[in-house]
Amino acid sequence: GQDVRFSYEKMDASWNFINKIWNISRYILMNNEGLTLEQATANVEKVVNKEAGNVTDRWILHNLNETIGKVTENFDKFEFGVAG
């Protein structure tokens, strides 16, 4: 491992990032109560197959897939700071 100097600025930035993740998860959970994994998967597949959704939905999924690929690649290289 590598020693990192403590920084209030980095702590504030990390707090802001974590808070965003928290708010996103709350929003998703509040708007999808009772939704099963199978239903969610079917909804995503409809958007991917252009049976539902719009250009914005497809753009979001495209960017999500690119992000997942980059994060996975960095996790595999143990570059956790870059993956975050």
Automatic annotation (TrEMBL):
Cellular component per GO, a single term:
cytosol
InterPro entries in the record: tRNAsynth_Ia_anticodon-bd (IPR009080), Valyl-tRNA_ligase (IPR002303)
**Catalytic reaction list:** tRNA(Val) + L-valine + ATP = L-valyl-tRNA(Val) + AMP + diphosphate
Which Gene Ontology BP annotations are present?
valyl-tRNA aminoacylation
Q: What is its EC number?
A: 6.1.1.9
GO MF annotations for this entry? ATP binding; valine-tRNA ligase activity
- The first-level EC class reads ligase
| Keywords (A to Z) from UniProt | Aminoacyl-tRNA synthetase, ATP-binding, Ligase, Nucleotide-binding, Protein biosynthesis
| Cross-referenced SUPFAM superfamilies | Anticodon-binding domain of a subclass of class I aminoacyl-tRNA synthetases
**Protein's name according to its UniProt entry:** valine--tRNA ligase
Please spell out the taxonomic lineage of the organism that makes this protein. Bacteria, Bacillati, Bacillota, Bacilli, Lactobacillales
